[in-house]
Amino acid sequence: xxxxxxxxxxxxxxxxxxxxxxxxxxxxxxxxxxxxxxxxxxxxxxxxxxxxxxxxxxxxxxxxxxxxxxxxxxxxxxxxxxxxxxxxxxxxxxxxxxxxxxxxxxxxxxxxxxxxxxxxxxxxxxxxxxxxxxxxxxxxxxxxxxxxxxxxxxxxxxxxxxxxxxxxxxxxxxxxxxxxxxxxxxxxxxxxxxxxxxxxxxxxxxxxxx
Length: 210
Known about the structure:
Blueprint: H1 2-17, E1 26-40, E2 52-54, E3 56-68, E4 71-86, E5 92-108, E6 118-131, E7 136-139, E8 142-146, E9 149-161, E10 165-174, E11 179-184, E12 191-209
Antiparallel strand pairs: 1-3, 1-12, 2-4, 3-4, 4-5, 5-6, 5-7, 6-9, 8-11, 9-10, 10-12, 11-12
């Protein structure tokens, strides 16, 4: 599985960066912080409902920006680390790493007189995630796993400063079940409930475009 993921990531990177460098095609570096927000497919799981405390994760990678008519296609290959914590009396944590490939359509507003200094922008598009690390799933009376492939849809906004620095915030809406686990009775070891969840997250990023 890891070999297949490595091939996919390498192929995407080659396609992104094999494009000819010109005044209109920009390469860049991107890094940011993210906050996970698990959403479940049930109404209540007793003591575990709302028990996950979202902790900061992070991501870093490379991006390319290609203009098409009055829009830009913004694609990136990012290493993303997710981090969550169980806050009830039993404690525990959820951690895993992924290669994320967002492909967003971006619109920049060129304001006359200040366009070279600041440009507001909005963007949206799909994101594809491939798990590359064995999940760290340390929770008492709970066993489960993260899915190896996730999809999401991004909605974001930001500003471009001096044609090079981009500061953005985005919300990623998970489109498939990214997490499943079983809750067991600690006294009998019997399964109490099967749970599936969708991961959604906010991301604040800074990109430097060359």
